[in-house]
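Box S1 | Example of a co-folding query
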Amino acid sequence: MTISSSFGLLVSALLAFVFVASAANFNRDIEVTWGDGRGKILDNGQLLTLSLDKSSGSGFQSKNEYLFGKIDINIKLVPGNSAGTVTTYYLRSQGSTWDEIDFEFLGNLTGDPYTVHTNVYCGGKGDREQQFHLWFDPTKDFHTYSLLWNPRRIIFSIDGTPIREFKNLESIGVPFPKSQPMRVYSTLWNADDWATRGGLIKTDWSKAPFTASYRNYKADDACVWSSGKSSCSSSSAWLSQELDTAGQQRLKWVQKNYMIYNYCADTKRFPQGLPKECTAS
Ligand SMILES: *[C@@H]1O[C@H](CO)[C@@H](O)[C@H](O)[C@H]1NC(C)=O
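Box S1 (continued) | Returned holo structure for 2-acetamido-2-deoxy-beta-D-glucopyranose
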């Protein structure tokens, strides 16, 4: 073997190592924390499944805590008759005045659409729900669900299409999560007491176990919180990222065609006036 070819091998071995080290791996990034074996990491860390049966659901959490981040995951939701099941995917901090950024996927009867429920909590207070139907069947394939959380805004996206933006409007007195580190959590559980048409449709346990699958957890662009300090990824464009014109148009398209509930339009719920972020221009 010549020197140059062994050098070439060394370089490609190093590149392969760098690639593997940065590639998504559930064994490295995630802990299954609930469900007594119903949550599984498979395929050398490339696949994670959560399942739900009559005795229990299951759940996982990220090993890291983050103070801001751009976090992506691919999810394939429970197929078939998933009515009564709820798959959650969210960021949350600790304690009684926690911050939280939520995706929740409410199952439905076969052929009826999932509801994607979103919320933002700050200091333990939420009440900022927006709900959507989807422009595709989320049970047929994996789709990318992303949370961008930087000091200026929170953007919820699906396959790169923004569905919701929550801006930092502290300047007009709206609280914004920015000082409590959060962990990523996901659970699959039974909520047939409320999820499907207010609890009218019950989970069909003859179809159990129900399974949701996950791939490609990616938190490369994030500030990891450890021993009271935050250390951010070297590329930091995401820290000031905002919606460009195309993104704003996509967001409008989703909100016009797929939004089924918006707290900002629920004047009955807020007889003293809508929350401030709803009327800020
Ligand atoms: C289920 O499907 C019905 C009928 O299309 C729809 O009204 C409802 O929002 C869907 N979602 C849930 C969670 O029931």
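Residues 3-22 form the longest helix (20 residues). The chain has a mean pLDDT of 93.
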